[in-house]
Design a protein that fits this description.
Elements: H1 2-20, H2 39-48, H3 52-68, H4 72-79, H5 89-105, H6 109-115, H7 129-145, H8 149-159, H9 165-180, H10 194-207, H11 211-224, H12 229-232, H13 236-245, E1 251-256, H14 263-282, E2 289-294, H15 301-310, E3 315-317, H16 322-329, E4 337-340, E5 353-355, H17 360-373, E6 378-384, H18 387-402, E7 406-413, H19 419-426, H20 429-443, E8 459-462, H21 466-478, E9 486-488, H22 499-503, E10 509-511, H23 514-517, H24 522-530, H25 539-551, H26 555-560, E11 566-567, E12 572-575, E13 581-584, E14 587-591, E15 594-597
Parallel strand pairs: 1-2, 1-3, 3-4, 4-5, 6-7, 6-8, 8-9, 9-10
Antiparallel strand pairs: 10-14, 11-12, 12-13, 14-15
Helix pairs in contact: 2-3, 3-4, 3-5, 4-5, 5-6, 5-7, 6-7, 7-8, 8-9, 9-10, 10-11, 11-13, 14-25, 17-18
Length: about 600
């Protein structure tokens, strides 16, 4: 009886081992398979294994099973008990891949890339296709999460021929999402391989302006690359573009206030919008007809939409008023696609609603992006007290900290009389003065000691009016912090040409609309000649009006082409997944009473 039990146990162990490992593959070693045994059984057998190699293989199989069952914590604990040196190269590739997958569950792409840099990965091409796909997939995910977009696309192009069915379709669309998000200066379609073909397609689409031009560019590319995977199966966003091109925009409703507190804002937006319309006419284009509606006299949005539909309107630009935009954002759907000229508070909205405005939050994120590009890591913040300052502070802080930056001090500016004290507190000058006084008392004599500021503040993020900035910058100089860089939103710039005001802000760097930084733009020159106020701070609204007109026929393009951008007068325009148009801005600096343009931030 005992002999029979021993035989049965031996047979069970043999079956477990057979289930856990593929057939021998030369010197690369056996690979774990999805076993019939449980995690506990595998670990139990590992403790009874006759060789360290068999024990390591059983534990590796258990770790993989735990990961497949969604228990990443248990998988990581088991994997730590697997000594890599006892594994053969193929098994090391398997373990490194699993380690990378576990790192990605913790949102640690750099750790995943480190795992995938193991020397055994040089043998990946000798592994079964299933393993190559698994390793390549997690490698692509880690590269994308680490910001290495082109490398991620290259990895997905490599594994594409090994995929079938739904996995192949998802990978195909992921390649286009990655390639389509690359800026044009990174697209180098000078190779004849599949990756070069993908980049050529992206270049063709991005180089074309209108929907019709994009469709022609896609058709030409497909004719030149008939055997390319994207020619055989056009990515879904480009298929949607084709549908959009068959529905030309012929009539737009411009819904803006003509009376009330927002009348001046509405007037500037309307004049900018129509200036772009007339420019399109002068260029020989056939722009859509414009129908004007007064939002200040609206009694009901439903009534407005009924009237607009009866008038043959295909797209609404407006409203401007925040309560109306908020109202639209809460509806399940809209009768007509609408580009609101303001933002609602929530992120969600109906599929027909797009939102565009001069959001201070965009500029806060732009400051974060610029400071990172300049190699800075530790910020101090100065914003006005109140709801507006809180919104700007929140937008900057979230973006800055999400990208690895730290915030070492924050001050909310209110009364000018308190400004010197606030800056002294921010830079801990009073503590320095107290130390100097203590030293004098200890020495019993006067000691020449200049207060020293804290040294961990690398720059100041400033959101303030020109009048506040005029006080803040000289106070920084007075408080021994004049050498700390100041990065500001456009709100510090009055565009008044006041040299004395600019002198008080020397050294401040700020983001601004292209409209106010480029006097040579032909449309700007025409508009300023007719409406001189467009050269001042109102120019931002004229620029927004121009961009609203240019966005109108291209909303579908921005939605269909992830991370594509339009170079506008109010900034470089892109769109979020929640259909909000967001801006990236150029930069300038106050230098000796003049505004000096700075090189653009790398995208």
């Amino acid at each position: 009886m005992i002999a029979c039990l021993r035989l049965f146990t031996a047979l069970c162990l043999a079956a477990l081992l057979a289930a856990c490992a593929s057939s021998p593959s030369s010197s690369l070693g056996e690979l774990p398979r999805t076993p019939d045994a449980s995690i506990e059984q595998l670990l139990e057998q590992a403790t009874q294994a006759k060789t360290p190699e068999k024990a390591a293989l059983l534990r590796l199989s258990a770790a993989d099973l735990a990961y497949r069952q969604g228990n990443a914590g248990q998988s990581a604990q088991i994997l730590q008990q697997v000594p890599m040196e006892q594994l053969k190269p193929g098994q090391q590739i398997f373990a490194s891949t699993l380690n990378a997958e576990l790192a990605m569950t913790r949102n640690q792409p750099k750790a995943a890339l480190t795992a995938l840099s193991h020397p055994s990965l040089q043998h990946l091409g000798e592994m079964p296709e299933e393993q190559q796909v698994r390793t390549g997939t997690v490698h692509a995910r880690a590269l994308e999460a680490d910001g290495q977009t082109l490398a991620a696309a290259r990895e997905r192009v490599f594994i594409a021929p090994m995929l079938q069915g739904e996995a192949a379709s998802k990978n195909h669309e992921a390649i286009w999402t990655l390639i389509g998000s690359l800026p044009t200066d990174q697209l180098q379609p000078n190779t004849t391989d599949d990756l070069g073909g993908w980049m050529g397609l992206a270049m063709a689409v991005k180089s074309a302006g209108t929907l019709e031009q994009q469709q022609a560019a896609i058709d030409t590319w497909r004719a030149q690359n008939p055997k390319h995977p994207a020619a055989i199966n056009l990515p879904l966003p480009l298929t949607k573009l084709k549908e959009l091109a068959s529905q030309p925009l012929s009539k737009i409703a411009l819904l803006l206030p003509q009376d009330g507190p927002l009348a001046a804002v509405g007037k500037a937006l309307r004049e900018g919008f129509m200036a772009a319309h007339y420019q399109a006419q002068q260029a020989g284009q056939k722009p859509p007809a414009i129908e004007f509606y007064d939002s200040s006299k609206l009694t009901s949005m439903d009534e407005f939409y009924r009237k607009a539909q009866a008038d043959g309107v295909q797209l609404v630009v407006g409203p401007l008023e925040k309560p109306l935009v908020k109202q639209l954002s809460t509806r399940p759907q809209l009768p007509i696609t609408t580009l609101a000229l303001n933002y609602s508070e929530g992120d969600q909205g109906p599929a027909q609603l797009f939102q565009f405005g001069l959001a201070a939050e965009d500029e806060a994120r732009e400051v974060s992006r610029r400071a990172r590009a300049d190699g800075l890591h530790r910020a101090a913040i100065m914003v006005p007290k109140g709801e507006w300052g809180d919104r700007v502070l929140r937008a900057f802080s979230q973006d800055w900290q999400a990208n690895g930056g730290s915030i070492v001090a924050t001050e909310r500016v209110d009364q000018p009389v308190q400004l010197a004290q606030q800056i002294a507190d921010m830079f801990q000058l009073r503590q320095s003065e107290a130390r100097a006084k203590s030293l004098q008392n200890a020495a019993g004599t006067n000691v020449a000691a200049q207060p020293s500021r804290r040294q961990d503040i690398e720059f100041i993020f400033l959101a303030a009016t020109p009048q506040q900035a005029q006080q803040i910058k000289p106070t920084l100089n007075f408080q021994y912090a004049g050498d700390v860089p100041v990065y500001a939103t456009s709100h510090v710039y009055s565009a008044s040409g006041d040299v004395n005001q600019y002198n008080d802000m020397n050294g401040i760097r700020f983001c601004e609309t292209p409209w106010l930084l480029d006097n040579s733009d032909p449309l700007r020159q025409q508009v300023v000649a007719q409406w001189p106020q467009a050269a001042g701070s109102l120019g931002r609204l004229y620029a927004m009006g121009v961009d609203a007109y240019r966005l109108a026929p291209r909303l579908g393009q921005l939605k269909a082409l992830p991370d594509s951008r339009i170079d506008g007068e109010s900034g470089s325009l892109g769109m979020t997944q929640t259909q909000r148009v967001v801006r990236q801005l150029p930069w300038a600096q106050f230098v000796s009473g003049q505004v000096q343009r700075l090189p653009d931030t790398p995208r």
